[in-house]
Amino acid sequence: MDMFDKASSETLFGTPLARFDVADHETLDAELLAECARLRAESEGVQKSNRGGWHSDLNFLDLETPCIQRLRAVAIESVKEITRRVTDKVDPDDLEMKISGWMNANPRGGFNAPHTHPGAHWSGVYYVNQPDVAEGNSGMIEFLDPRSDLPNWRLFRAKAFRPKRKIRPRAGEIVLFPSYLTHWVYPNETDAERVTVAFNVTFSKRRKKAG
Q: In whole angstroms, what is the distance from residue 22 CA to residue 17 CA?
């Protein structure tokens, strides 16, 4: 005899994480690395979450260099795609979009401290150069569960309740996540630099034209 007439379950308060492999990224990556070298020769960069690395100004994606504009277009399209995947109530093409981005270069020992990106909707990272490693945490980005009071649930060993998630993306990959999600980057343990372009996207309602 069945004990239930009906049963259902759902996942509440999920945090989406998306990954996109950019097509034919090798040429783009080489051009971005050249642009990185040029910018570093001109500026010492700024200090944000980076520790021991170089961080460009926040207007990187506004530069008119063709490779940067290609990356900007790819970043925008990836954000539209993940937005469509999480909601069918709003078309991102009907919203105003503001995007800002910056380049990071982490030499050996360089890392990014835990942080969020307040005020934005989506944050993303494009991986320009990701040094190969055989083992360890070098080059990994880690996301921390934004919820509190979960320790008791770890007994279940369920993915839905794990306190953190770390991944090692590949060169040519975009990782997207909600901007409220705390994240950090493990120290680079190689002699090759880990180079990325991070970006924030904020949506707002499109203003109606007068008249």
A: 16
